[in-house]
Specification:
Layout: H1 27-37, H2 42-51, H3 56-68, H4 74-88, H5 93-102, H6 107-113, H7 119-133, H8 140-149, H9 154-166
């Protein structure tokens, strides 16, 4: 080996290059990183920061800063996520509510997002769910059970199975 080449085991201090040390992020920096990837509720974001080992005082300071600057708004995030799931999915309102509650949104905020009349939307969502999982010749009882497990109401399940059998 020539004297000017170095192997990977030899230190590179003489070349002037320094090894980078990982910068420890503050709770605010980490919260911004998490919010850049996805919307979060205040409670869910606090839980994630606590799991990463940040102190409670630092977490609260970060959350209040983000709220003051308009980056963290539970009401808007809840409304946005509910609307997306309600319009784009085959999930029942009960499933959507449970999912949003798991994400840390209060049930009162979620209840404000639910429209007054959901029967037609629920029936259509249940029909889409049946179309994905069953053939027209499937037993109605199995279809009903499938929809019940997905959180659809009894009347919606019966209407969806009847409509699915007619098509």
């Amino acid at each position: 080996m020539s004297p000017t080449r170095r192997t990977s085991a030899e230190p590179q201090e003489s070349s002037g290059k320094r090894q980078r040390t990982k910068i420890e992020k503050t709770a605010l920096m980490k919260a911004v990183d998490l919010l850049a990837r996805a919307e979060h509720s205040t409670a869910h974001l606090a839980r994630k920061l606590a799991q990463r080992g940040y102190e409670e005082e630092e977490i609260q300071a970060a959350l209040s800063t983000l709220t003051e600057r308009g980056y963290l708004d539970d009401e808007e995030a809840c409304r946005h996520q509910f609307t997306f799931l309600y319009e784009e999915s085959r999930q029942s309102v009960r499933q959507i509510t449970a999912k949003l509650m798991q994400k840390g949104f209060p049930s009162s905020l979620i209840a404000d997002c639910v429209p007054d009349d959901t029967f037609e939307r629920e029936r259509d969502a249940a029909g889409r769910c049946l179309a994905v999982h069953f053939k027209k010749s499937a037993e109605p009882q199995k279809m009903l059970q499938h929809l019940y497990r997905r959180g659809f109401s009894t009347t919606v399940c019966r209407a969806a199975v009847a409509a699915f059998g007619e098509d």
